[in-house]
Structure formats: C-alpha cells, structure tokens
C-alpha cells in the first residue's frame, strides 16, 4: 500500500517509509509499505523524523496500529527554489543576433522546466524559427540550469519570457521581459 500525504507546499521534501509486517522483519510474505511525503523547510526535517520514530516506537500512527517489526526509513530531497531568469546580453537585442535565456533552479532531477512567451508555451520543435532548449548538468550547489536560445532574433521574439519549474505538486515561475 502506498499513501502520500502532503503537509503544506513549500520548499523541500522529506519522504518517510514505514515497512510493516513479517516481510519487513525478513520472515517472508505479508506486510506492506506505507510512504508519507512531507513538504517543508529543510530545518524541519529533524522534527519530522523524530515524530515518525516516536509513532513507530508506540506502534501507532494516529489511529492506525502498526504490525510488530515495523521498520522506518527516511529520505530527504532538495527543495525546489527558482533562483533566477537572466539573459546573456545587456541592453536591447539587435536583430539577427543570438540571445540565450538562462533559468537557474535548485532541486532534484525530478523537476521539470518549461518556457513560456507572453503566457504561451514555447514549443521549440514546432517553432518556425531556429530556437532550442537545453538542460545543463547539475552543478556543485544542486543547481540545474535550463537554457532557451534564439539563434537569429527578430521583432517576433519581443515579449515576456517565463520559466516554469515543477517538482511534484510544487510549481514556481519567474519572468524576464522586454527583449
């Protein structure tokens, strides 16, 4: 059995898994697994872990009894934080020049990036002009960078560009305008 319970929708995430029954104790068939997912600041992870350990020791989570031999595991994800959206040029963009927008976010490999222009999804595979996107590898600070490149800028490229980052049910957006 899997159950995900979201407590708030901010920042980081912690997943606590309780394995129950004879299978958890290594005795064969039976038992199951229950997963609780909490979203909140990293600073609260110690309190979440402590509360789950106390409930496991008592053999109860709320009004649910746990099978003897229940084991607890705890895993913490990096929280989702959209750092910045910047352009690689200063001043106005000249026609027929390349410009690149960078969207930097902290999080995990499970997050996804999407680009919008004036509120509409930018689909580079269907674009009539030469546009591209790229996701750079994770850097040393758990930052991912998504790029949107326009190879030959023209008046049709003017507008407000928005980077949307999503991880689980959490979504963040930042915009850059006036290109």
Automatic annotation (TrEMBL):
<dbReference type="InterPro" id="IPR051587">
    <property type="entry name" value="Adhesion_GPCR"/>
</dbReference>
<protein>
    <submittedName>
        <fullName>Ig-like domain-containing protein</fullName>
    </submittedName>
</protein>
<dbReference type="InterPro" id="IPR007110">
    <property type="entry name" value="Ig-like_dom"/>
</dbReference>
<feature type="compositionally biased region" description="Low complexity">
    <location>
        <begin position="15"/>
        <end position="24"/>
    </location>
</feature>
<dbReference type="GO" id="GO:0007189">
    <property type="term" value="P:adenylate cyclase-activating G protein-coupled receptor signaling pathway"/>
</dbReference>
<dbReference type="GO" id="GO:0004930">
    <property type="term" value="F:G protein-coupled receptor activity"/>
</dbReference>
<feature type="domain" description="Ig-like">
    <location>
        <begin position="68"/>
        <end position="179"/>
    </location>
</feature>
<dbReference type="InterPro" id="IPR036179">
    <property type="entry name" value="Ig-like_dom_sf"/>
</dbReference>
<dbReference type="InterPro" id="IPR013783">
    <property type="entry name" value="Ig-like_fold"/>
</dbReference>
<feature type="region of interest" description="Disordered">
    <location>
        <begin position="1"/>
        <end position="24"/>
    </location>
</feature>
<dbReference type="Pfam" id="PF13927">
    <property type="entry name" value="Ig_3"/>
</dbReference>
């Amino acid at each position: 059995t899997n159950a995900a319970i979201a407590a708030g929708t901010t920042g980081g995430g912690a997943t606590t898994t309780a394995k129950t029954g004879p299978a958890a104790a290594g005795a064969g068939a039976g038992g199951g697994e229950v997963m609780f997912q909490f979203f909140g600041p990293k600073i609260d992870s110690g309190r979440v872990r402590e509360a789950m350990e106390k409930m496991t020791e008592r053999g109860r989570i709320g009004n649910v009894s746990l099978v003897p031999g229940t084991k607890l595991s705890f895993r913490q994800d990096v929280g989702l934080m959209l750092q910045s959206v910047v352009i690689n040029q200063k001043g106005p963009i000249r026609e027929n020049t390349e410009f690149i927008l960078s969207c930097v976010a902290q999080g995990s490999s499970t997050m996804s990036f999407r680009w919008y222009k004036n509120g509409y999804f930018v689909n580079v595979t269907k674009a009539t002009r030469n546009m591209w996107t790229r996701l750079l590898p994770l850097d040393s600070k758990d930052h991912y960078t998504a790029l949107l490149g326009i190879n030959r800028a023209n008046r049709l490229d003017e507008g407000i560009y928005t980077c949307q980052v999503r991880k689980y049910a959490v979504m963040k957006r930042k915009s850059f305008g006036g290109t």
